[in-house]
């Protein structure tokens, strides 16, 4: 449980550095991340390196006792480099190149930029790879930020064709797999295939899906090239990348295969304003962030790297500058988010940024210090955290084991791409569907592992496919062999890997396990809903749930009806231990359904007060209160069935104040 900070020595007079470093240490910070945007200062002109300032900055931080996370600076290629060869710029879907003047303007597919990326990575690694202060490396910065995965450059065209040739072998196989007989789209050679740009109406969905896969693979390869250089030149150091929240343009699992630590950038209040939450939720959680946004990402990134190591590389310390609205977090939230991360197994929480800069694009973004060098609220909370963490870790041995939850929520990047390509209804949002189900589980006090389709599912009591449009043979085999209770949400198994309707009909590979066949599907206009009734209570007056956005016409083929529409047609069915849900439910209905299933699976659920969340990490249990009113809670609720266990409060109280936390040790 370490604390860190993102620091930009190049943005401040050198006279500040020593006191900055000693203030960090005094605040309880042990790690400092530097240099991810420093290319033009490291190499002011082609081949002319100015290491002197960075040498001094590193020495200053090192002599204060700080550990350094050093970055490759490829997110900001300098002006001279771009002017040397503008073909390194990314190109948008209208064929217009991006321009210099912000960041992330490079094209992942530019072989010329790849050469530059390897060159600057080698230079910085050979300079500092064995420096005793350097404990970890971050590759680049937030791959894909500002929608920069897809580039329609000439180089990307060619590499996409090569990628397709490798995947399909012959163009004949590609034509057959995609279904190019439709609209006269047959190709005679791979060279005829263009990326999905400037078409009159939508391009072929199979072509678009492969384009997304290709774009993702380009990021994986770009990252791996840097990682290989780092590993060779900086042995014994951890390698990480800082992923962006709610960002699905590339496969984070695949990038993580080459990393030691998956890191995420956590901006709960910004995310609350920028993503799919409705107006009422945005208002309700404006100053604290939706309670499940931080932990959704904690539970996702914990599953990324072998060994389960994960960090928060950038933690919101106060108001940000980039959301539609940028409220001030309530006092206590920086502490709450940090403790919650720690109680999901996080090894390091690092704040973005040390001092708010008075100039440039992010001048309105808070830091731990204000531009005039005084301590902002974030710093006050970091000081408190450092003391609390020390007191707690002095007393309790922390788990080194990889703690696993009892519920697995499968998360699949390819489904996110498929759903963006053909949503078949404006209100269907696959990412939101996964999040809403996650949130319902968390509101029941359950711990959740968010896992990839090839994770080992045999250890879970409950497995949930919230959005799984294609079901691979391997996933099917795991589900078939599992003794867990399984919940399958609508559209699962509905597509082949080439984005055509599955054979057999949806839910495709899952048809036998689910005991249902999807006959027809419909999307519902915004505001429309379908009342649902318990099948066994025929003629009931009151609906027990509501379906929205998406509805399926199911035929039971072995399954029994559980929830039906007003005509008695099945909408939610059960077959042995598998529950199939042919619509998108409201939050409260997901909660009821999952409570029922998880209880049957033998899990102890509890209906937590609005805004209260529980996290369990080895012997420690945390209760965090995001609500406006105090909430009472104690682990007794969890221990009901095993009276022999004892618990001791380590921090806080059983009456948890708004934005407060409490931590217990449970034997
Ligand atoms: C992140 C990014 C940082 C900074 C921050 C502001 O997305 O990695 O460089 O821009 O957002 O919140």
Query: Which stretches are poorly predicted, pLDDT < 50 over at least 5 residues?
Result: none
- Biggest sheet statistics: 11 strands, mixed
Shape: globular
Helix and strand composition category: alpha/beta
Question: What small molecules are bound in this structure?
Answer: beta-D-galactopyranose
Question: Which range does the strand content fall in?
Answer: 15-25%
Distance between the termini: 21 Å
Oligomer: single chain
Mean pLDDT: 96
Gyration radius, to the nearest Å? 26 Å
Please tally the β strands and state the result: 25
Helical percentage: 25-40%
Q: Helical region count?
A: 20
List keywords for this structure.
667 residues, alpha/beta, eight-stranded parallel β-barrel, 32% helix, binds beta-D-galactopyranose
What features would you describe in this structure?
- The protein has 667 residues and is of the alpha/beta class.
- It is 32% helix and 19% strand.
- The protein contains 20 helices and 25 strands.
- α8 packs antiparallel against α15, α13 (333-342) runs parallel beside α14 (377-395) and α16 packs across α19.
- The longest helix has 29 residues, at 205-233.
- It is globular, with a radius of gyration of 26 Å.
- Bound molecules: beta-D-galactopyranose.
- The site of beta-D-galactopyranose (GAL) has 11 residues, from loops.
